Amino acid sequence: MKARLLSQKGYKPGNAPGALDAPEGALDPVAQIICYDPENLEEIEFTSIDDIPALLKKWPLVWINVSGLADVGLIEQLGIQFGIHPLALEDVVHIPQRAKVEEFENCLFAVFRMAVIQNDAHALEQVSLFLGKNFVLTFQERPGDVFEPIRERIRKGRPRIRMARPDYLVYALMDAVVDGYFPVLELYSDRLDALEERILNNPTQKMMEEVYRIKRELQLLRHCIWPLREAVGNLTSGEHGLVNPETALFLRDCQDHVIQVLDILENYRERISGLTDLYLSSISNKMNEVMKVLTIIATIFMPLGFLAGIYGMNFDTESPYNMPELSSPIGYPILLSVMALVGIGMLLYFKNLGWLGGGNKKKP
Amino acid sequence: MKARLLSQKGYKPGNAPGALDAPEGALDPVAQIICYDPENLEEIEFTSIDDIPALLKKWPLVWINVSGLADVGLIEQLGIQFGIHPLALEDVVHIPQRAKVEEFENCLFAVFRMAVIQNDAHALEQVSLFLGKNFVLTFQERPGDVFEPIRERIRKGRPRIRMARPDYLVYALMDAVVDGYFPVLELYSDRLDALEERILNNPTQKMMEEVYRIKRELQLLRHCIWPLREAVGNLTSGEHGLVNPETALFLRDCQDHVIQVLDILENYRERISGLTDLYLSSISNKMNEVMKVLTIIATIFMPLGFLAGIYGMNFDTESPYNMPELSSPIGYPILLSVMALVGIGMLLYFKNLGWLGGGNKKKP
Amino acid sequence: MKARLLSQKGYKPGNAPGALDAPEGALDPVAQIICYDPENLEEIEFTSIDDIPALLKKWPLVWINVSGLADVGLIEQLGIQFGIHPLALEDVVHIPQRAKVEEFENCLFAVFRMAVIQNDAHALEQVSLFLGKNFVLTFQERPGDVFEPIRERIRKGRPRIRMARPDYLVYALMDAVVDGYFPVLELYSDRLDALEERILNNPTQKMMEEVYRIKRELQLLRHCIWPLREAVGNLTSGEHGLVNPETALFLRDCQDHVIQVLDILENYRERISGLTDLYLSSISNKMNEVMKVLTIIATIFMPLGFLAGIYGMNFDTESPYNMPELSSPIGYPILLSVMALVGIGMLLYFKNLGWLGGGNKKKP
Amino acid sequence: MKARLLSQKGYKPGNAPGALDAPEGALDPVAQIICYDPENLEEIEFTSIDDIPALLKKWPLVWINVSGLADVGLIEQLGIQFGIHPLALEDVVHIPQRAKVEEFENCLFAVFRMAVIQNDAHALEQVSLFLGKNFVLTFQERPGDVFEPIRERIRKGRPRIRMARPDYLVYALMDAVVDGYFPVLELYSDRLDALEERILNNPTQKMMEEVYRIKRELQLLRHCIWPLREAVGNLTSGEHGLVNPETALFLRDCQDHVIQVLDILENYRERISGLTDLYLSSISNKMNEVMKVLTIIATIFMPLGFLAGIYGMNFDTESPYNMPELSSPIGYPILLSVMALVGIGMLLYFKNLGWLGGGNKKKP
Amino acid sequence: MKARLLSQKGYKPGNAPGALDAPEGALDPVAQIICYDPENLEEIEFTSIDDIPALLKKWPLVWINVSGLADVGLIEQLGIQFGIHPLALEDVVHIPQRAKVEEFENCLFAVFRMAVIQNDAHALEQVSLFLGKNFVLTFQERPGDVFEPIRERIRKGRPRIRMARPDYLVYALMDAVVDGYFPVLELYSDRLDALEERILNNPTQKMMEEVYRIKRELQLLRHCIWPLREAVGNLTSGEHGLVNPETALFLRDCQDHVIQVLDILENYRERISGLTDLYLSSISNKMNEVMKVLTIIATIFMPLGFLAGIYGMNFDTESPYNMPELSSPIGYPILLSVMALVGIGMLLYFKNLGWLGGGNKKKP
For residue A117, what are the β-bridge partners? Predict the structure, then answer.
């Protein structure tokens, strides 16, 4: 996952609000215009800002989508054309923004993050959206988005979307963005399942690092989605009259989905915390096992080694008090028997403690 | 426990809202109709959608229960018959939904999870419920539910349920669902009791895995029940006039039960966290015991072994400075006595430290 | 402590609300009636339900207290006599209920838990209370309660209680219940003090199990008392007019006490969490001490043992290169000196590390 | 620190409210009266309750301060004189009370804890305060308080305090109490700084016990101050008209200080939790160091000791297959070289693992 | 980072509010006056308080900035000149204050902390700000601030700032302060990134101490910024009419930034908690590795050493029962083979347990 918490470096506090600088590494914009009414549809490659007034006059709904934020001139022109407040324009190019919906005089401004899945990973990019009386203006960081099915529905003339109401189009776009998080959650669900199985089987520190990584990524994801809950709610409240009650019903459904995403993230968070506990207890347990092996070995062989050491001493056996055992004709077999008894006794003791596989009694 | 957090895989963001696809693995529907008034009762196997208008005319209350969601055609027909909003129909087949109650123009829509106990385990299935002026329409994933006692009460003509008011029937159904969670909690209570006893007696890593599993399942359960609290509250508020004040009194009681379920889940959660602490401290303690055994053994036999090693050296005893002890006629018994003293001294020292069973003094 | 979180087993979801079954193990009821006005007092053993209307006519305040819930017939009769809603009656026999206050048409219903101390332990039992215009009706699970001092105050004719206002009597009862928790808290305070001292002196796993037990009991206690806060507040709000403003002042004081109980429980909870940390760190510390002893012993005696082993080898000392030390006349004293130096050196090293009692320097 | 969470033992639930018993160990009261107007000032030792009506008539503001609560008769007399509600009087002698402000018919009642520093420790004592139209009545447990600077300001005739408005005097008293917590926080800040430095340098279990003690004391402190936030806010709200808007401005400032105290306590709490983590990780780390020393020693000397043991065996060297090394003229130097190589090899291996001071590579 | 939680020592509770004492170590003030209208600009070094009334008459906006708080006389004079409440003046010199915005009769008072970056570290200093009808008065502790770009914008005559509305200037100042936290967050982001990499590679206790330090600093930072959220919100609410709606739009944006800063701090906090978990698990893991090495070595060499010890015993080999192996011509090679088998067997056993690098099987 690639996502930033902080804007590009070198951001200078104290600058005038509304000053536009293209974000670092921004791509050249590709702008696409879709105009439609219930009967007709026109898809145009954006060429000049001057074409737009004519389109706005002709069509009940003009959707302009700009992918790539390198050309701040274009963004400023569009801002002037649609009467957008400079603070909102600044938010378009200042990445990342906290998800929010703001009401301006003649339009609603929404900014949020969109998750696009590529090769089993997901990238987050910022989408800025302006909703006016007869236009929808969207900016995204890169080409490639979750809006393609919506374009298909427009092209195929599906009745509800072709009513050509901008608020419904905005709902469709936000719903696509929110629903686009579910496949990302599925990826994490798979990773967590795999990790859980591996930690239950044979925990290693690598897994703990993976746990840490997933935790960080989910934190970042939650960081992006959390404010969306409030933002979607703000779309329907307010006195702007840009969202009609029928669409508000759909947006309520969309907000339900945001809450569901957050619920699932919370559930993942608790699962990760459970996995951490499980891992730590498992490590402690393994250590216990290792220590038991060491203690069993030491406890058996130290006394035996000591006995062998005794009879390796060189006391003068002339004296009858000095190591008479050595001269006994069966000293050796007796000693071996004693050693065997000591060894077996120790083993039985440990078996009794439950330290050997079969036992499960508690130390008294 | 079997429950999903995420919908079936392959869910495509950007689809039009209201598009119906049967959930993966859905069963063929079995539909049952119960019509009754205070005096009469008719139970019919559902055959055709065309019979329904006649029934609605004839009876003050028609309850249609559909078990199995494979036939989306049937669901759509019922939706048209009862004037149900497409978004609500979509929620019927999109599993799982967050528990919620929504107000539509001519009906109330509630969706929640029902716990059905089978063989000491419980399964969760989604129940969708529509409450109209003279009908109640319920969908469930599988045959088998907690509603049988309600059907019995209807059949037996119990006065309150036979008043044939749809809002009271809805209360009865929701109350059965909520009360159906208590036996599930009982199962977990039993599992926690057993686990607690085993952890207090002889903790093993297997128990920690069981703790983890119970924790996950309770999280999932809480995830299902938590939004129900708000949902039941929403049933009584609102201006739809479908729930009369007398029933609101009963629903308040039902909401109390939801809160009680959540309280108990919270209590279980804290108990599990306590068990984890107990387990970890017990593991640390066991390690301490193991280490003490090892240290006692090593501390006794290492000096003794060293002494034995000394007198196993081969210095030339011709010189009077070289190991004169070896030639002493009572060198060996003296050494053995010294060794015994060293060993006993060590044991007394450890006893004093409280490392041996009987001692409980603190190391100075 | 004896308290249940869940109702008796075998509770069947789907039953009609208001169906009365005596709780498992319920005792036979003993009912006592106290009627009084500022001048007179009559204490009667309850004999028949038929006497009650006459009493209600004669006295401004009739307090009926029923101890023991086995006779559901009696409870139903009382319910009919005083016009009590079936849902409230059901709550009287369904144990345990979450503490709550509910407003019905002609009475207020309160249910909560009372702590009764017996032999240094406490038992919780459910008290249900109905407040009407000129009656107070209380149910408790067992004889024996915290209401005796109130009965005494009535008998002795203390002016405030003998005003014979039912709302003041209810306040007095609830205040006795709430204040009855303080001695229970005192018991826990004593147990925690004792535990704290023992953990600071010589922590053992037994104490951790005691910590766990106290934690569970306090959770249960908090579970009982928490909803009481809201419940006492609900007594004074509402439009029932059964509680007059003067008594509301007293109830505000009672609610303050509930909050104080909860504050103290929270404080105990934090103390327990601190004790757990302390215990765990102390166990780790003890392990460290054990390990240091082992390491010191091994580090001193392993090299010494090795040296002794060297000179126990049987190389052919004919060759001048093979162990010439053995033939040296002072080989043995020299070796002993070397060994002493090695041992003392090691001890000094460990002293320097701060591993021996006196040292407190840090390892470089 | 000396503070109680629970009242004195033997508190009997069920007692009539308003019954006054002197708290255990209460001191004999010393009462001081200060009467003043902008021009004049009179300080009187309290002698008889009968003098008070005259004083109240003569002066616009009479401040009576009672230190010591043993004489409940005096407290009752004062209560009757100033028309104080019995519940409030009961709170004066029931110690400890949760900090609160309550509105009675003819006065405001505030109760809170005051921190008095003595010899680098602080004691908490309860202050009860009654604010009426032309009097301020304060009770404290012991002589010695933080009000001396206020008395000085009154005596020196500072203009604002000499306006002789009781609400301003109450503000001054509460502000002194709140600001009196800052020096206490300073004491804890110093203790935490010292502790932090010691834990960073050389952590011992004693410090953990100190951490636990500080944590408990701060909990108790927070327990006392937390409700003060709401209490000070309550002083200004309400319709009693006893606090005029200008003073409300000052009280807002006082409430800011309470919030600041709570913020700092929260900060200390987090710091303590960080110290605990640091301590635990440091203990684990030290254990690791100890274990490394042990393992290095054992890993070097066990193989060497084994080699020495081999050549100490007594096989019959007549056979050319039995230990021919012993007869080799340079067997001994060769063996010593091998031993040196093994030892150095082991050391290099551990250096490579980063177990020795200089290394910092990771185990492959 | 340098920041205080508590005021300078020696703060005496009970002092009259509004008494001004210069904070400890305060610098001599440097005061700068900027007056401007849309067309003209005048920058004056402050010389005498008497010049100010003329300036206020002449210019629509006078901004006086005082750096250094040692001269309380000057601060008092300014307070009198601008009619500032003594409580607010007290807050200017009492450092640190909790960030807040307060409404006084003729001005708004805001106090907060400003982060100034110097040499890769940041210092926090308190800024007090008074907003009146035609003046802005700011106090800061030291020269050097984040306001230079604003002065540049004024000098360069940027249209929006040169409208010369004091509320917009205040917004610009607060925005500069809030945006000034982002570079500080960047510094911490870099430190956390570096720390994370080092902990993943080779964790040492030093890093844990760094974690602790960063945690404390972030707590302090959050402590400073948290109340700012509410404070900025308070600027726009209220009935003072000093902030016009257009500026409120900008302040909303500024508040968004405060929330973003807090979000990022929260994210850092969670990251630090994750790092602590990672560190602890890594230490446990390392200990496990160390213990395994020790156990492997001991388990291999203890039995081998015992065998060597056996054949070093001096039993009288005359008896055919005593150690006949010693006389066998191939006793030695046989023993060596047995030892090799034992050693290899142990190694295979540990490989099977997964204790050696290559293995990853679980102990049965």
Answer: A122
The full set of domain ranges for chain C reads 30-280, 311-353
Q: Which of residues 280-319 of B touch C (CB under 8 A)?
A: 280-282, 284-285, 287-288, 291-292, 294-295, 298-299, 302-303, 305-306, 309-310, 312-316, 318-319
CB C312 within 8 A of CB D311: no
Q: Is E244 helix (H, G, I), strand (E, B) or coil?
A: coil
**Distances B73 to A9, B85, B89, E294 between C-alpha atoms, Å:** 57, 15, 11, 70
Chains near E with 3+ CB pairs less than 8 A apart are A, D
State the pairing for strand pair A30-36/A41-45: antiparallel
Architecture field, domain E282-353:
Up-down Bundle (1.20)
Q: If you ran DSSP here, which 8-state letter would residue E326 be given?
A: G
What are the CA-CA distances from residue C169 to residues B198, C78, C154, C241 (Å)? 48, 19, 10, 15
CB A12 within 8 A of CB E149: yes
For residue D22, what are the CA distances in angstroms to D11, D68, D93, D142?
12, 10, 6, 13
**Which residue's entry shows tokens 């072994």?**
B305
Please give the structure tokens belonging to residue D55. Answer: 């004083």
| φ, ψ (nearest 5 deg) of residue A33 | -115, 130
- Does B31 contact C at CB distance below 8 Å? no
Question: Is residue E127 within 8 Å of residue E138, measured between CB atoms?
Answer: yes
Q: Which fold has domain D285-353?
A: Methane Monooxygenase Hydroxylase; Chain G, domain 1 (1.20.58)
Contacts of E156 in chain A (CB under 8 A): none
**pLDDT by residue for chain E (364 residues), tens digit each?**
444 566 544 455 666 666 678 888 889 999 999 999 988 999 999 888 888 999 999 999 999 999 999 999 999 999 999 999 888 998 899 888 889 988 888 889 999 999 998 877 888 999 999 999 999 999 999 998 899 999 998 998 888 888 888 999 999 999 999 999 999 999 999 999 999 999 988 888 889 999 999 999 999 899 889 999 888 888 877 667 888 888 888 898 899 899 999 999 999 999 999 999 899 888 888 888 899 999 999 999 999 999 999 999 988 888 888 888 888 888 899 999 999 999 999 999 998 888 876 434 444 3
Amino acid occupying residue B186:
E
Question: Are C280 and B278 inside 8 Å of each other by CB?
Answer: no
Q: Left if phi > 0, otherwise alpha if psi is -120 to 50, otherwise beta: which for E238?
A: left
Distances (CA, A) of A213 to C28, E141, E278: 62, 42, 10
Contact A248, A236 (CB under 8 A): yes
Give the pairing type, strands D121-131 and D135-140.
antiparallel
- Classify C30-280 by CATH class: alpha beta
Looking at domain B284-353, which CATH architecture does it have? Up-down Bundle (1.20)
Does A16 contact chain E (CB < 8 Å)? yes
Q: Do residues E32 and E64 lie in contact, with contact meaning Cβ atoms separated by under 8 Å? A: yes
pLDDT in tens, A245-300: 888 888 988 998 999 999 999 999 999 999 998 998 888 888 888 999 999 999 99
